[in-house]
Amino acid sequence: MSSSLLFLTLAYLVLIERLTCHAQSHGDRIGECRLEHLSVMEPTKRVESEGGVAEFWDDKSQQLQCIGVTLIRYTIRPKGLLLPFYTNAPRIHYILQGKGVMEIVVTGCRAMYRSSTKRGMSSYSDEHQKIQSIEQNDAVAVPSSSVHWIYNTGHSDLVLFSLVDVANADNQLDPTFRNFLLSGNGNGKEGEESNNNWFKKKQREAQEGNVFSGLALETLIGSFNVQREIAEKVQGLKDWRGSIILVKEGLDWLSPEEEEEEEGLEKRKKGDVNGIEETLCSYSFVHPLGEPRMHADKYNPRGGHITSLNTPNMAVLQYLQLGLDRGVLYKDAILVPHYNLNCHAVIYCTRGSALVQVINENGKRVLDEEVKEGQVLIVPQHYIVVKKAGSDAFDWVAIKTSDNPIINTLAGELSLVRAIPEAVLMSSYRMERKEARLLKRKGELTIISPPLEETH
Q: In what order do the strands lie in the sheet with 91-97?
């Protein structure tokens, strides 16, 4: 009995300690997140590589720290290769322009695809996981810790907006963005100081290498069973091309239409699978959003349209706990006031401009600014947001921190106001019954189209 009592006592103390630590951590985060003022944001850091540019939003910004995300915009030049890497949290890429191919290497999945190419009199056959094509308005889901690379197959720049959810449960260390390169290095040329030779020298001395560069050379030689020269190239200590390189001979022979190997097919037919085959390995990581009007969740022929990407139409998102909306508001159209029930939203303007207002719990307007192409704003969970398009159409993508984002509208067909009895509205707003009925019945649309222009 004494030993059982001791065990229960220790278990109770451990539980209390964990609950206390969790409460303190949660309290600290609430204290830090006093979002009394929001602002439209642009990248603050630019790192140039041989084959492109990576632009970073300020990770120290209170807005981004409170919702726990890192934002990056990649520009990959023609024949540019974003070198293989993985991060400590799941992410979503949204393709802003261009086209290319990519591979997401999922741990536990077999290399059941084959690429073949001819060089002179020789031919090569290479096994790998699935290579997928990407193009403008595609959303790409990348699970935490999954290695991936991206190659530009087009004749113009391939541009991606990327959100990394560092506050995700998959990241168990701390809310810090960590990028693990498998090759090359992350130095490149940073900011305007890149032309300064002293700065270049200091940057190289403080090299941000790939994951192999810190290992002893003998360890690499033994691990891969290769010659010293090959191991030194893997370390990349003298490779100054950055994290995006140019492939002069091109990789156009890499195609997303490879056939599965017969051996792999036979194994699947016999049921010889490892469990992961039926989950991540079979999912699509790319979803096109190029024609939102065909699959719009909300559509007004004169106002605009919104398409949502969530678990029902992209199953892999349940592993990322991320979702996405793509929207278009036509000239002067309004998206009625609404709020996110279960997530934060990061809004990236892809075209045009809009006036955006965000309201907090005290009815205070914490944001009242115009957002333009290439700019970002955040909308915290439960904060009210309303958008009005400018003189041109306003296109945006909103990446959300839930795989099934839910919004509540304050006006419109399914709004909260329409669900409240007339008598309650009359008392709440000191209005007549006729006015309460008008309030409920007039607001039938989520996207409000502008009034028709008068003709003379």
A: 189-190, 45-49, 52-56, 70-76, 158-164, 91-97, 138-142, 286-288
pLDDT (0 to 100) of residue 41: 97
Whether residue 272 has pLDDT greater than 60: no
Rounded CA gap, 308 and 258, in Å?
30
Could you read off the pLDDT of 169-181 as tens digits, one per residue? 999 989 899 999 9
- Write the CB contacts of 209 (distance below 8 Å, at least 6 apart in sequence): 181, 185, 186, 235, 236, 237
pLDDT digits (tens, 9 = 90+) for 303-323: 999 999 999 999 999 999 999
Q: Can you give the pLDDT at residue 259?
A: 45
- Span 139-150, pLDDT tens digits: 999 999 999 999
3-class SS letters over the chain: CHHHHHHHHHHHHHHHHHHHHHHHHHHHHHHHCCCCCCCCECCCEEEEECCEEEEECCCCCHHHHHHCCEEEEEEECCCEEEEEEEECCCEEEEEEECEEEEEEECCCCCCCEEEEEEECCEEEEEEECCEEEEECCEEEEECCCCEEEEEECCCCCEEEEEEECCCCCCCCCCCCCCEEECCCECCCEECHHHHCHHHHHHHHHCCCECCCCCCCHHHHHHHHCCCHHHHHHHHCCCCCCCCEEECCCCCCCCCCCCCECHHHHHHHHCCCCCCHHHCHHHCCCEEECCCHHHHCCEEECCCEEEEEECCCCCCCHHHHCCEEEEEEECCCCEEEEEEECCCCEEEEEEECEEEEEEECCCCCEEEEEEEECCCEEEECCCCEEEEEECCCCEEEEEEECCCCCCEEECCCCCCCHHHCCHHHHHHHHCCCHHHHHHHHHHCCCCEECCCCCCCC
Q: What are phi and psi of 332, to 5 degrees?
A: 65, 10
Residue 64 or residue 262, greater confidence:
64
Q: CA 136 to CA 289: how far, in whole Å?
A: 9
C-beta separation of 19 from 161 below 8 A = no
pTM, whole model, 2 decimals?
0.84
Radius of gyration for the chain, computed over Cα atoms and rounded to the nearest angstrom: 26
Q: Are 366 and 372 in contact (CB under 8 A)?
A: no
More confident residue, 449 or 31: 449
429 φ/ψ angles, rounded to the nearest 5 degrees: -105, 5
Length of the chain: 456
* Per-residue pLDDT at 50: 95
- Do 377 and 40 contact (CB within 8 A), yes or no? yes
Task: Find the range with the poorest average confidence among 23-37, 188-202, 331-345, 417-431.
Answer: 188-202
